[in-house]
Write a structure and sequence with these properties.
By secondary structure, this protein is mainly alpha-helical. The chain has a domain at 18-46. Helix content is 96%, strand content 0%. The model has no long low-confidence stretch (mean pLDDT 83).
Length: 46
């Protein structure tokens, strides 16, 4: 049972960090895309 727990924790540590980084980068990209969208809408109106 302990071996399974250690294996599970290793899997979470290896897979969990890249998933966290991916979500962080997607969030940053989303805010930049929203800013670009706002600028394009402003240009279209003017």
């Amino acid at each position: 049972m302990e071996h399974m727990l250690e294996l599970s924790m290793g899997f979470i540590q290896e897979i969990g960090f890249p998933v966290f980084v991916s979500f962080y980068l997607l969030h940053r990209l989303e805010t930049k895309l929203e800013a670009i969208h706002g600028a394009l809408v402003t240009l279209k109106v003017n």
